[in-house]
Specification:
The chain has one domain. 76% of the residues lie in helices and 0% in strands. The chain is globular and about 65 Å long.
């Protein structure tokens, strides 16, 4: 509304903000803020809009992957200190039930790369289930890194050329959704085959 009324020029604001992007402390600040938000199951993913606007796609993806992975590790350990009420909420989630059955790298990766899937459920479920930390970290870094790069490329381009239409286009998030769904379907098929074997 501020833009439409002429009180705010987003391109001028972005140009001003990009001057600060050259300072090393801004990268550190963005990572630390993500860590804090992800630790407490808050919206750390919103920093995609900041990092992708200020930095080229590869740099933004790296900042987001590092921040989200460190925040995920912090949430992983923090989830072990949760109250019973919080644990009950996490245990009733789809992510918890899926990770309880299939706590491997591919499941974690599929959930991380899936568009709009809540990372807090993955982080807290993995901590409560005591999933192996190394596959958890690698899946977080790769899944979030790839997803962030795809979105950052579109956001950075839109902030330089002025069109956000590509971000809402299925061709942007469709491949991520497809990869995620294929991995999850393979995992579900494997579970089904194992059950058939046991019967």
């Amino acid at each position: 509304m501020l833009q439409l009324s002429g009180f705010l020029d987003p391109h001028m604001l972005i140009s001003l903000a990009r001057e600060y992007a050259e300072h090393w402390w801004l990268v550190l600040l963005l990572v630390l803020l993500q860590v804090v938000l992800f630790t407490f199951a808050l919206a750390g993913s919103t920093f995609l809009w900041v990092a992708a606007t200020l930095y080229p796609p590869m740099t933004a993806a790296l900042i987001l992957a590092v921040g989200a992975t460190l925040g995920g590790i912090s949430a992983y350990f923090f989830s072990r200190k949760l109250t019973d009420e919080w644990i009950d909420k996490v245990e009733s989630s789809r992510a918890y039930k899926l990770l309880q059955k299939e706590d491997n790298f591919f499941t974690l990766f599929a959930l991380r790369i899936m568009p709009a899937f809540p990372h807090a459920l993955i982080n807290y479920s993995a901590g409560i289930l005591k999933i192996k930390l190394l596959p958890f970290m690698i899946a977080a870094f790769l899944g979030i890194g790839i997803k962030s790069y795809v979105y950052a490329r579109v956001i950075y381009k839109a902030t330089t050329t002025g069109s956000f239409a590509e971000l809402l286009d299925f061709s942007t998030f469709g491949p991520l959704l497809l990869v995620s769904m294929v991995i999850l379907l393979v995992m579900i098929f494997r579970i089904y085959m194992n059950r058939e074997k046991d019967n």
